[in-house]
Amino acid sequence: MRRAVITGVGCVSAAGTYPGPMWTNVVEGVSGIGAITGFDISNFPVHIAGEVKADPAEVVPKRILLQTDRHTHHGLVAADLALKDAGIEAGQFDPGRIGVVMANSLGGSTFGEDQLGKLYTRGARHVSAYMAIALFYAATVGQISIRHNLKGYAKTPVADRAGGVVALGDALRVISNGALDVCLAGGCEAPVSKYALTSCLETGLVSQSDGNPVYAPFAGGDGYVAGEGGAVLVVEELQHARGRGARVYAELIGFGHTFDGSDPVRPEADGVQLARAIRQALDDAGITSDDIGQVWVEGLGEAAQDDREIRALRQVFGSSLDGIKLLCTKSLYGHTLAAAGALEAAMSCVAEHEHSLPPVAFAGAGLPFVREAGVAPARHTVVVGTGRGGINAAIVLAHFDEPMPVITGAPAPEVTGIVAQVLINAALPETFAYVASTETWPVWQPALERVTVNPQSRLAQGSEITDVRHHMGLRIESTFNVTAFEPDAQIRLESPGGRMTVDIAFSPLDTGTDVRVTIDIDPSALPGFGGTELTRVLDRELGILLASLKDTLESHGELYEALERWLPSR
Length: 570
Description:
By secondary structure, the chain is of the alpha+beta class. It has helices spanning 22-28, 62-67, 70-86, 109-122, 131-135, 139-148, 163-176, 194-201, 238-243, 272-285, 303-317, 340-354, 445-448, 455-458, 531-552, 557-566, and strands at residues 4-13, 16-18, 33-35, 48-50, 98-103, 154-155, 182-189, 229-237, 250-259, 292-296, 325-327, 380-387, 391-398, 432-434, 451-453, 466-470, 474-482, 490-494, 500-509, 512-521.
């Protein structure tokens, strides 16, 4: 039987990112909810939300930021964080065996609102050519797949607030049935815009209160506070994870999904179908309600919806509910709709890893919520998600404590200084090869013995020398001269996967501007690649960086043309 385990977690929310400060903020009750800053709220009924503070430009290339909506930015950042957390890089495995399932419920509302404003005030010619793909629910799945060269199963569940839980259920199925070895699953949402919030207001579930606490589930409130964010969990087949010595957060063992089918907005008050979804998940996992130690609840903060959820839980657990730990972290960063279930599943995984459950930041009177930090998870966990009209979903996560193999690579070489240096004159037609020093770096010889530099195609005309050096990686430097560029400027770019960084420094000269370009290549990218494969991988990332340079330096054509001649021709 193929088993699915969680080997990586990436989160973006108003409470921070994970890996990063989000977990600490959640445990300590630090709220990211506050007054909306993204638009003028003076004549708008909603004044507070959970806005993401992290700048996606630190991860997402500028050209992608300009072509996509904010929800996609959150998804891209979360995917990068999750893959890095899992220790998986693009090209490491068969791309046809890795897929993406990312839920979304509002599409590119922020991008769409801006472009529709241009349509009605300035005309169709002023509307972005990227509007169609930025508005699309599946834009994020496509962008993640392209960014990381993933070619397996891909899907975008549109199941309102239950979407993130449904995405994880889909991931369980495609891992279990052998369709994939790895699946990036979760959700992303950007509901904090006038257009998006107006749509949500029509459900009657968005709080218009500015009180304190601003989002208090199970307290008879008027609804949830909207939040931006995204979460991606790396769901991996267990033997695949064992083969690379992966760290495992938890095991994903069950999924249930039902629908009330009675009203387009309001679900049935009795909670019967929600209870059935939870039972389906338990049956799928092969366990009973007695095996559950904690439940992550929806916690919409609207009286009727909260009552329905408790009715459903009591139908499943009966009087045992009082002994089950209830959890909900949404009150700290807002309800992120299709990302909500994935975010709380992610927090559940981290709680397993930390052996500590996060306390709730609201009263939840009369219910067994966790109220103090340091309480350890017990047995198995249920994560619940619901959506308008009675969409119901639940997953079951199991504690994982089986031993995993420790995979060690070749020892890191000791480096005392420059190992070799090759001086290349741009006027010479010959191709020079750099051969690794077998005395100092024997483990790198197979990968580096045929790294070549062609000075005619890769150096700007007029360059005098290029130094090719090893430090703790491969460094390529070139100096050449251009005119009319801002002196003392600096630019730093990083390629996907962190294999490569480019630093460009500009120094004023009497004859123009002296430009030094430095490319540093992470040594961890080198072992295991043959000469041809190494060249292909590095050329691809240089091409991506060159595209980023074009966006960054678009107003400085002369410099870009020089750099384009210096870097490998595309």
